Amino acid sequence: MKKLILGVITLCLLIACQKESLSDIELQTTTTVSNIQAYKAEITVAGQVLTSSESFSWGVAYSLTSIPKLDNNRVTFMNSGNTVTDMIMLENLLPEMVYYVQPFCERNSEFYFSDEIVSFQTDSIPYEIGEYGPAGGLVYYVDPAGWGLEMSTYEYANNDWGCLEEVLGTTDTIGAGSANTALILTDCPEVGTAPDLCNNHTEGGFTNWHLPSRADLELIHDSLESPGYWEPSGSDYLSSTDCTNPSYGYASYYAYDIVDGHGISAQKGIAYRFFPVRRFEF
After folding, report:
1. What residues does 89 pair with on adjacent strands?
2. What's the structural domain count of the chain?
3. How far apart are CA 91 and CA 144, in angstroms?
4. What CATH code is carried by the domain that includes residue 270?
């Protein structure tokens, strides 16, 4: 009799363990895709675990193959529990590609996948390098996060910074020209200078123009001038990046030889050519 009782207990424990196994967790989900763009899309999942009352983390696997759970591309929702109704943005996707999405829940590093798999196709890139942007300028940068940069084809000649002292805080990164221009005008709000003219430039119905950073000018050389999308009127162009190296012996900022493709330090007070640039969203 004792052996029979022990056998029954052992069998019950085995059944209990099997109920927590991967194959016994059943999900019911409804997945929708919206706001599809070239590089991103919104995924909404409404779901529940039918065979367990435990708390789970929820997410989706996504892939260019038809079985997403075999791919390591997975994102997790912020909330957790036995049910979920949540939205997450898939980013850094490839344009004009078909993606497959499969919901999952996870507990103790074990993943339980829904049988539901939905697919969607990303859009084409709305703006290409060398094409005209929304304001009519030439596009020289497109970011997978959904924004880009365009340069005006209108050039200003023979203007300078108008700010002989050092301007602290300017940086030399792509897209930093807007913040740089604001810093320059805060320290030196003179009318008719290169930062002022770019800040007040209007083109294509847009007013958010600014003086480009040195990195912007380098990128314009690589993306537009070298491939032949744009032919500059001169060689040296102003940037909004201050040059703080005291060894030059004079107040200076970075300019760029956009024909030969190299940076130079320009003495403040000496006029150079320049053009405005702007950021746009898509």
Report:
1. 42
2. 2
3. 8
4. 3.10.100
